Amino acid sequence: MGKGTPSMGKRSSGKSHIPCRRCGRSAYNIVKGTCASCGYGKTTRIRSYSWAKQH
Ligand SMILES: [Zn+2]
């Protein structure tokens, strides 16, 4: 198995992100205890960037 998209499906060794209780997205990192989407666990303010589309 080489690099590339086809190998992505093989990475099933546990889940790293679970649904976030604040933003609802499956971006809450269990190991780090932070949400990659809204920054839950890392900051009390909502993580937001101007380059990120919000809706
Ligand atoms: Zn979140």
UniProtKB/TrEMBL annotation:
Query: Could you say which cofactors this protein requires?
Result: Zn(2+)
Keywords from UniProt, A to Z, are: Metal-binding, Ribonucleoprotein, Ribosomal protein, RNA-binding, rRNA-binding, Zinc, Zinc-finger
Q: Does the keyword Translocase apply?
A: no
CC cofactor note: Binds 1 zinc ion per subunit.
Region listing for Disordered, in residue ranges: 1-21
Give a Pfam family name: Ribosomal_L37e
GO MF annotation terms: rRNA binding; structural constituent of ribosome; zinc ion binding
Tell me what this protein is called.
Large ribosomal subunit protein eL37
